[in-house]
Description:
Chain A is α/β, with parallel strands linked by helices.
Amino acid sequence: MANRVAICAVAQIKNDPNLWHARFQNMLLECFEGIISQTNVGFDMEKGIRTVLTCSDDVWDARTISDNAITDVVGAHFRGEEKIAQESLNGLGYAMACILSGHDDIILYMGHMKESQTESRGMCTNLAFDPFYCRPLGMDFVNVNAMQARAYMATSGINEEHLANIVVRSRKNAKKNPYARNNVLVKEDDVMKSPLLSDPLRELHYYPATDWAFGMLLCNEKRAKEFTDKPVWMTGFANCIDSYFLGDKDLTSNFTLKNATERALKKAGIKGLKNNFELYELCDHAAYQLPMWAEGIGLIKDGDGGKWISEGGLDECNINISGGMLNGNPLLLGGAARVIECFYQLRGEADKRQVKGVKRALAQSTYGAAGQHQAVVIMEV
Amino acid sequence: MAIEKNRNVAIIGIGQTKHSSHREDVNQPEMIYEAVSSALKDANLSIKDVDCVVHGNMELFEMIHQPDLWHVLGTGAYGKDSIRITTGGTVGATIACVSDNLIASGMYDVVMAIGFEKLQEGHTTGGITNMADPLWFRNLQTGALTGSTAYDVMQEFGEDRAKRASMMYRIIMDKHACLNPNAHRAFGLEFDQIETLMNTSPQLVGELRLIHMCSQSDGACAVILASEKKAKELSKKPVWIRDHITIHREETFNIFGYHQKYPVYKTHKFAAEQLFKRNDIKQPLEYFDVFEMYDPASWWGLDWLRDFFFLKGDEHLKLVENKEIMIGGSMPINPSGGVIATNPIGATALLRVAEAALQIRGDAGAHQIPNNVKHALASGFGGTMWTVLMLLEKELNW
């Protein structure tokens, strides 16, 4: 098992709708201090942290070179720092590369996103589209996801009741997670009557804008014991990107997630999901994505989403026990939130939501419209 | 203590566009495609041979959020693994370091790094100014324009000598750019213009004049890297990446109030000290055959020579005054013409790595330096005085 990397410690703040009293620097500092106090890790050029990875985004922070604003609070003054300008799960993959390459023994990985700062989420994600064709049409991640939702509902037998069921369950699960956003519990009827955001997506089908920050300490196998008695091993990572124009792809094919999962499993030396995983954390920006990504990772057959939800597949397979992205994590950091939940579960530290006997977990994240970019991380104890 | 790399990595393909102030004939993915296809041709590979694509630039220059999503039309990343990592102006060098790490880790065999910028489509100085803290520093920011280094050099060495050395550096860079068909600005400046330019070029901030400052360019660069095994199979002239270092610093520009007794510790010097120490390079000026430096302005290029090569007193000025930094000199700096000639920011630092590698291969064409290049250094600059340094080698023998 020479190809594995230890996650030694995690720290986070509570997901919050509007941390008006804190700048993102304050949010990060809290996580930074959490990592330092848990591990006593230092910044010596020989033995300590030489490289800090961060995750944030210029558009969402409205700052060119957004990592420039946080170099000091992540300990990167006169040290290396590189910013994952992509969904946060990909940073875990790159941290793995930094360590396995031999260039670094230890990586501190910090991320922040303050969605409450933006006037409109749609305005930010509209900027991800080309300025000639798609942007003037008003495309953003919500309305393009709505197109995917409509197409997927038609192929998978997913209906309004299924979606309502997913939202109700997410909020119930999140109540047991002390770091989850405080949302009111809802009933199926509330979900089905919630206003349309972009047909067929309703407001309660979509994750709420959230502020959050995290920190993680990763280390090579040899030195992991210096920082923890209970390392969680990251053994596989891969991602995949689809083409850009919606007309060039089948929105229900799960092309990227299938590729990413297959490649991550191969790296971890695992043959298929069946009987090999006890827990899955999937990035459900919208309710329809939970069964769709379950198809994408190969947990269920293509088109079986509706049937699977009806039969209680979500609880049976331990999907998003944390409450998931749907309860509220910021767009860029959903992957890190998934990894942190897997970390607690694998260490047996998930308190009221602890699943018994978790030995292996899969975390997935997505970015872009309609799952254009997908990433998968495999974690084990 | 040298870093024990899991496996060796080499550059096996290099491509770049012609750089210019206005590439109105192409959109961003099309411009990137030019660099990508040229790198693939150089490596004699097809896109199928690439496992992972690494993409970098700064979003607010063109106001495209996560542009790799759109650029997939030109990068060739479709269906592959792809990573987007950015820093500042350093980003081009960062993605070269990232690609090296990705391959050395054993996770990927062939990785392509792509840096680009189309500065024509935005407002560069506005974009850079937007980097500063909105509460504390933004009102003081002048983008990348700062006159403080000019002031410092003039204070230390006298106004006339400093101004002449800086303009000499500028003209040498232009002479190099005139030999590089991809360079953006190549004016054909002559040394007898030093005096005129010193006095007539429009002032931007203090003694930083328009002619001293780098360009705003449109352009892209792609570099293909491979594991040792793959590189030996695929390339006749692999260029080996020995090591790299990234050093950032906090955002406050505590570079005001310069005092000779208490100089501000620069990341350039710290990065060079650390990197050379762990690779046992005691005399960098003797060791390296060429240096592609991220020199955003001739005052900075002149001043930073001292930091990177641990020079004392006025040794760095003498290197310039004696034209030792010219092609054919003892330490050629930026035979490509450097950043003052060509600056598509997201690509700029990757161009330093690419040009240094071309020198090692002996494939730089008219701007190839005459001696056999065995050891090359490339630097990236960005953020608030951040540095990335990369060591490139002809032989796998360190």
